[in-house]
Amino acid sequence: MTPDQIIFLISAVLILVSALMVVITHNLVHAALWLVAALFGVAVLFAILNASFLAVVQVVVYIGAIAVLFVFAVMLTRKELRDRGTQTRANWWIPALLGVLILAGLAYLILGQPDVSRTAPAIPAGVDTLRALGTALVSPDGYALPFEAASVLLLAALVGAVYVAVGRKS
Amino acid sequence: MSIPLSWYLILAAALFCIGLFGVLSRKNAIAILLGIELMLNAVNINLVAFWRYLDPSRMAGQVFAIIVFATAAAEVAVGLALIISVYRRRSTILADEIDLMKW
Amino acid sequence: MQNDWLYIGLFLVIGIIVPIVPLVFSALVAPHKPNPIKQSTYECGIETVGESWIQFKSQYYVFALVFLVFDVETVFLFPWALSINQLPIFAVLEGILFISILVAGLVYTWRKGLLEWI
Amino acid sequence: MNFWNDPINFIADWLRGLLTSRGMTTGLSTVILFFIGIVVLIIFAMMLDIFLVWVERKVVARFQDRLGPNRIGPFGLIQPFADIIKLVIKEDITPAGADKLVYNMAPVLAMASVILLWAILPLASKIYGVDLNVAVLYLVAAGALGTLSIIMAGWSSNNKYALLGAFRMVANMISYEVPMVVTLLIPTILANTMSVKGITDAQHSVWFVILSPLGMMIFLISAIAELGRAPFDLNEAESEIVAGFHIEYTGMKFGLFYAGELLHAFTFGGFVAMLYFGGYGVFGLEKFLPFLQAPLVSALIFLAKAMVGYWVIMWVKYSMPRIRIDHLLAFNWKFLTPLSLVVLCVTAIASKLLSGSPTWLVAMVMFLANVVIAWLTIEILRGVGRRQRKVEEHLTSPSSPLVRHGSE
Q1: Is C67 near chain A, with CB under 8 Å?
Q2: How many domains does chain B divide into?
Q3: Is D198 part of a structural domain of the chain?
Q4: How far is A60 from chain D (nearest CA, A)?
Q5: A1-84 under CATH 1.20.120.1200, yes or no
Q6: What is the pTM of this model?
């Protein structure tokens, strides 16, 4: 076991345990907080994978914005907040079985691929992934169009969400 | 970097399946959205792991992950707005009771 | 690179342990004599009416929504800001187009009167 | 390499030699060195925090024409230690309906989110925790943890005041995070790097406050709002909601929130100094006076600049009245955010067009551009104000139908 394998395993356990708590805990605010823990574990993975920009963005966007939005939404729909009773369907075992089956299938497929236990190549010297990402995002032969499209998507989401949440205002 | 690629893929698959379970088994619409967030993150782990393990000098994986971030933000914004709107009109956020479109 | 994040990780762990130390120390030396009055919710001596987890106005949600969209978009501007020097002026204008799309959302919310706190 | 020129590496090399000579691997010795360095840095921050309690109390006393602590020790310097002993031996009361785990985690997270900032704070060119290549965003990420801790505190206390305070505080923090992130982009563009050390070194010839005075002002305002200090302190408006999100916290847990706030304010003073006032540099004087380059001296210079920033934050806090929440949000979304975006666009275009020109030209053009933006902003505000006054005059004038109805 090398040190980075140990760090990976710790964060994997953090992610999976928190994800399980997200889907089984009864209290919705707790579920949102467990989601924060799971997403933080994913940020650790990004850091291990040398994607430092994504690791920080994961914390800023998910923990700083999306988790806050979730907590606000839970507070706005208060009636369910008190509802400490069961939050899962009566026949919850069908999705559970489905999940286990899909996981088994995926694991079978993944482990059957050739060369899947390869280790990461070294990042070529002189490649600054941060600047390369910036160049790729705005250069026309890179991903300029998806970049602008993302901005239009977010604009549409903002307009739509504001309209739906507040409704027609005289 | 002595972690095999398969570890990331298995972890992402497990996270995806947990998210799927959450989406299918939860009654509360907000909890369903929480499950969707988990599934999107599983996708992101895969994208970044492939970027790192296949060709780190091409940024496609990271750009995709960024687009997924934007999509996740848009999805949460609209999804929660819909839930709040439904809650206002029908004062429930249980997915089973929001069945007007079923008939 | 990796060492940087190892440092941050260690910093996070120690940064969480350090505030716990005085709490543990306090738990050891401080008295502990709970009683129902002491543990009741503090509302300036007035009896608590109803439950504490009250419902909130949806205005908070609107602001969180606008913030979410702005947060995601401004974060995406960081790679752009880093590569301005290497790119032609066209790329700078592209970033400004991105910002103006962002502003359009703000203008819409403003014109709808949703930025007023009522 | 000697102690005077590079104290940290001097000690680190000595320790590394000591550890590896005992047969330890390089990896393990690196971790142990990191550990020692982090513990020393955090203890330094906590000591500074204790000193800040004294500074804050002394300064607020002077602002209010009082003496402040002056009984225990010279100038009351031992007073904070007495405060700490008192806080530690106070009973810790957890309200009956509280969500115990979340309730106890919140103050720890609040303090940790502030301590985390010290990992990237460059005290001197050779005294810093880590030179992260995404440090500017890391600052925002640590702030996100702070927001989370406030939600956790407010929600888990099972108290209406706490929840109201937390909601207000979070609405405040997330709103002002937008202009803050935008004004963090401005040094990033000017220095062409996101590492804080790179930004400090880029200000060798000219400080960014000259290139972007408006950016500095917006950053300072949004930093104060992010801290939740007056005039943006309606999260703990005493006359309305007593103490806000930490109303139920007693003893050392309250102490952590309080100490966290003070250290946060000082750290943001440091970030203002670092992003816009040249960090540990002194106008390029270090070229002529080499001793200013010595790490220990430049660390002192940086701490002095941070203290000035902290003093400005205190000055604002103790001379401004609290503003209403609608004014607070309107000020951010209708004024600060659009203005910061305009400044960002102008900075981006100007720095692209002027890349390669001599420094004095860049500085002059940038400064003039900022002056023009400020002038236009003031003109627009004046026009809006005049129109508003006209509407009000019309409503209150004797011929107005509203007033006639009122008098009948």
Answers
A1: yes
A2: 1
A3: yes
A4: 5
A5: yes
A6: 0.88
